[in-house]
Amino acid sequence: MRLILAFCVCMLFVSCYDYERNCADFQTGVFEFETVLGTEVVKTTFDRRANFEVETYKGKIDTSSIRWVNDCEYILKSINPKSMQDQKPMHFKILETDGNTYKFEYNVAGDTNKQIGVAKKVGD
């Protein structure tokens, strides 16, 4: 009985925790995102402005338009797609913020397979 009561009390405290979401602080600026591809850690840098984003990845630059759905979600679409995959818009959702970083999920718009990432704001 004590174990069940202790579990219920713990669940009460955990369920009351609310993640910080200051999404407006991350709508513009210069950001870095690192991910592992195979055995290699790769870094992407992107400069996000009100209506567009310029991404630098492995020395290549790509520009995309941004359409904000709400303060925490946006759709990114490549301006000059080079492949069929690049033509598909990407959906991003900021899940939580902490200092100069934010956790987000992203996927090809309409696809249910979502990925999680963390980006760091490195400049305005």
Brief summary of the model shown:
The protein has helices at residues 2-15, 84-87, and strands spanning 29-37, 40-48, 52-57, 60-70, 73-78, 90-98, 101-108, 115-123. It is mainly β and 124 residues long.
Topology:
Layout: H1 2-15, E1 29-37, E2 40-48, E3 52-57, E4 60-70, E5 73-78, H2 84-87, E6 90-98, E7 101-108, E8 115-123
Antiparallel strand pairs: 1-2, 1-8, 2-3, 3-4, 4-5, 5-6, 6-7, 7-8
Residues in β-strands, percent: over 45%
The general outline is: globular
Please identify the structural class as seen in this structure: mainly beta
* Separation of the first and last Cα atoms: 54 Å
- Count of helix runs: 2
Could you describe the 3D structure shown?
- An 8-stranded antiparallel β-barrel has the order 1-2-3-4-5-6-7-8.
- The protein has a single domain (20-123), classed as Beta Barrel (Lipocalin).
- The chain has 124 residues and is mainly beta.
- The chain starts with a helix and ends with a strand.
- It has helices at 2-15, 84-87, and strands at residues 29-37, 40-48, 52-57, 60-70, 73-78, 90-98, 101-108, 115-123.
- The radius of gyration is 18 Å and the shape is globular.
- 15% of the residues lie in helices and 54% in strands.
- The longest helix has 14 residues, at 2-15.
- The protein is built from 2 helices and 8 strands; from the N terminus they run H-E-E-E-E-E-H-E-E-E.
